[in-house]
Amino acid sequence: xxxxxxxxxxxxxxxxxxxxxxxxxxxLKVDESNRDDIGPEDLSAADVAxxxxxxxxxxxxxxxxxxxxxxxxxxxxxxxxxxxAITQRVxxxxxxxxxxxxxxxxxxxxxxxxxxxxxxxxxxxxxxxSVEEIHHxxxxxxxxxxxxxxxxxxxxxxxxxxxxxLSSVDSAAPQKRxxxxxxxxxxxxxxxxxxxxxxxxxxxxxxxxVSEVDTLEVxxxxxxxxxxxxxxxxxxxxxxxxxxxxxxxDLLGI
Length: 254
Prior knowledge:
The chain is α/β, with parallel strands linked by helices. It folds into 2 domains: 2-103 and 226-252, 3-Layer(aba) Sandwich (Rossmann fold), CATH 3.40.50.720; 105-221, 2-Layer Sandwich (Dihydrodipicolinate Reductase, domain 2), CATH 3.30.360. Helices cover 34% and strands 28% of the residues. The chain is built from 7 helices and 13 strands. The strands form 3 sheets. The chain has a 6-stranded parallel sheet with strand order 2-1-3-4-5-13, with helices on both faces. The chain has a 5-stranded mixed sheet with strand order 8-10-6-11-12. α1 crosses α6 (226-239) and α4 runs parallel beside α5. The radius of gyration is 19 Å and the shape is elongated.
C-alpha cells in the first residue's frame, strides 16, 4: 500500500514506522513546512492518504485528497462541525472518507460497552452520567473528540440527556480550541464533560454513572499512541476500494 501522510508530527511518524514494518511505502509526507507547495497532482502515486494534523488544517487536507481522487483516513479532531459539507462533497465526487475521533479498536469497543451500560441503567432511572477525559498538555482541543463521541453516545442512550457541555477544564497548558457545547434538542439537561491536560498522558476516558445507591464506571486507558496508528492503518487498507463516508462502526460492524 502506498501512503501519503498529510501531517507528519508524532502520529505521522508512528504511522510511518508501522507502515514500513508492514511492507507499505510512504510516497509523500506533508507538514507545515511544505503544505503550501502541495497540490492534488502530488498525491497521484498514493493509494490512500492518512491525515493527522491540526483542526484548522484538516478540512483543507481532506479537500486536497478528494481533488486528487485519493481515499483519505482522518484522525484529526476539532473539525466535525464541517462534516455535513464534507460529506456532501464526498458524495458529489464519489470519493472516500474514513473519519474517527479515535482509531483504537479498544476505544470503539469501549463506546459500545458504555452505550449498553447507559441503556440498561437509564431504564431503571436515578442515574446521573458524566464523562472525564485526560490527555497530554500538547493537545489543542477540549473536550477531546473521543470525549465528545462518548458523551454523544451516552446522551443518546439515556432518557435524561440530549446534549453535552464542557463543565470544567483542568489544564497544565491553556487550550487553543474549546469546542462549543452541542445544542439541546428537547430541553433536557446536557451531559457534563470534564477535560484534564496532564504531562504526556496518551488518552484516558471515563464514563461515570452515579445513583444514590451505587456508582458504575467504564474506563479506557491508552498506553501509547501506537494503538491509534495501528487502527488508522487498518482503516486505510479497508477503505481503498470503497466510496462514501465511513467510521470505525462500519469497519468493526458494531
